[in-house]
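In response to reviewer comment 3 from the previous cycle, which asked for concrete evidence that the modeling workflow produces usable outputs, we include below a single protein chain processed end to end. The sequence was submitted unchanged, and the resulting structure tokens are shown without manual editing.
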Amino acid sequence: MGLRSLLPARDRRVHEMRLQPGDRVLLYTDGVTESRMSDGRLLGLERFAEYVIRASATGEIAPETLRRLIHSLLDSQESRLRDDATILMFEWQPSR
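The workflow returned the following structure tokens.
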């Protein structure tokens, strides 16, 4: 995620992990963690991570976790974000 022309011209590292059934991968831009909550504070990485972990721990499915998070962000910003905010979550469920 990001524009290649804006990234430094250096070697990139590739990370590989073996996913287990039910594992989730979450990608997001800084517009998510830098969004302001209704109290004026930034959401921040810690609150963002806590929200996602808590929702996952209760068994909430990935689409519902994202739907609730997105609505929470939009509600606190009067449906207008000040920065780009992209969130992508997928869950590995191999076919049987």
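The first helix runs from residue 30 to 33. We consider this sufficient to address the reviewer's concern, and the full set will be provided in the supplementary archive.
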